[in-house]
Design goal:
By secondary structure, this protein is α+β, with helices and mostly antiparallel strands. It contains 11 helices and 17 strands. Its EC number is 5.2.1.13.
Length: 370
């Protein structure tokens, strides 16, 4: 059940959905894994601000909060919390608005009889203590937190047609050996494809990974790491299926590559960007898959608590229904109870479909279905 996404959608200053910048989840998909119970001490959310209920047929408008923020983040999924904490540690005044009663989004949890259960993500990348792609470790460290993890010796065990059984071992050599034993006639092709994955991964891992979509940042990185940047530029328009077919001919092995990519992107290899595939197919061996003690929900809890410790605020049961615009720029949000909050920028951790869910007659607001 692999599902990790650092997705924060910036809307500052946004004039219309056309100029809306968003990033796809770079490491997500679905796999198979047995569920384990993990004991977790009861957790109480810090800085939970209650939402006042409105009464009466006319539903009076709640008072506007006059405090101005540098940034408002809609949603407290891991992507939203990372965006919020990164801003908070730099001194920004940040408000996170979450419509549910706990943080986490798709990395949420529920508790029963003293046990905690994950409701979404359970296979986690980014917990390594080395390289530049250990993004969860870095995000937690930024707010002074660290989580104990349990290494997973096998990412996934594939059971495919024609009795094909392949385990993706944590150790790369063990995985490659098992795959070659299943397809001895494709040894050169297997090594060729996965070697290209490592070439891309090593280029990514050598860079201080901040944004692959910001031209100024990439321009600066080019002067520091020109060969690595040129490598990424070469592979940027290519998909994993095309690269695999340069090396591999066996249709069953190509179907296995499709299954590998489905874990990355929930689509087949021909629809999976080669850079995305390489990042996941190699990091599972470089940094490894690690399960956080206490459950995946502990990541969001640690980030939420770290945010508050750094001076940020989180408002739970706060359902954002509109993004308020002024002269075409996002300047704040309106909640379902009528309250309004204002900021210099608005960041949506919801999907672009939810953020721009439907048109509105109010020309000064974007209506949301968040």
């Amino acid at each position: 059940m692999l599902h990790l996404g650092f997705v924060s959608h910036a809307i500052f200053p946004s004039t219309a959905p056309k100029s809306y910048a968003f990033a796809r989840r770079t490491s997500s998909g679905r796999g198979v894994r047995t569920c384990e119970r993990a004991r977790l001490r009861p957790w109480r959310a810090m800085a939970v601000l209650g939402v006042e209920k409105t009464v009466g047929r006319g539903r009076e408008r709640a008072p506007v909060e006059k405090a101005q923020y540098d940034a408002i983040v809609i949603g407290s999924g891991i992507g939203g919390l990372v965006a919020a904490t990164q801003l908070a540690v730099k001194g920004a005044r940040v408000l996170v608005l979450e419509k549910y009663v706990i943080p986490g989004g798709s990395s949420g949890f529920f508790e029963r009889d003293g046990f905690t259960f994950d409701v979404g993500s359970s296979v986690m990348f980014g917990f390594s203590d080395k390289g530049n792609l250990n993004l969860i470790t870095q995000a937690l460290a930024a707010v002074g937190h660290k989580m104990q993890v349990i290494p997973d010796p096998t990412t996934v065990h594939f059971h495919l047609p024609s009795n094909l059984s392949v385990r993706v071992h944590r150790e790369y050599d063990d995985f490659i050996t098992e795959l070659i034993n299943n397809f001895p006639h494709e040894k050169a092709g297997i090594l060729g494809f996965y070697n290209e994955c490592w070439k891309i991964f090593n280029a990514l891992n050598s860079l201080e990974l901040k944004s692959l979509e910001e031209p100024i940042y990439l321009f600066g990185q080019f002067f520091k790491k020109p060969l690595e940047c040129l490598t990424l530029a070469y592979y940027l328009p290519q998909n994993a299926g095309e690269i695999a077919r340069k090396h591999i001919k066996d249709p069953q092995l190509l179907s296995f590559i499709d299954a590998e990519c489905f874990i990355v992107s929930t689509v087949n290899a021909l629809q999976t960007p080669m850079i995305n595939a390489s990042m996941v197919l190699c990091d599972r061996h470089f940094g490894g898959i690690n399960y956080p003690v206490g459950g995946v929900g502990g990541i969001a809890k640690a980030l939420a608590n770290g945010l508050v410790e750094k001076g940020g605020k989180i408002l739970y049961k706060a359902n954002v229904t509109n993004i308020i615009l002024e002269n075409g720029k996002a300047i704040g949000v309106r909640l379902s109870d009528g309250r309004e909050f204002f900021s210099r920028s608005v960041i949506s951790n919801a999907t672009r479909w939810d953020t721009f869910g439907r048109n509105t007659k109010d020309s000064q607001a974007i209506s949301c279905t968040i």
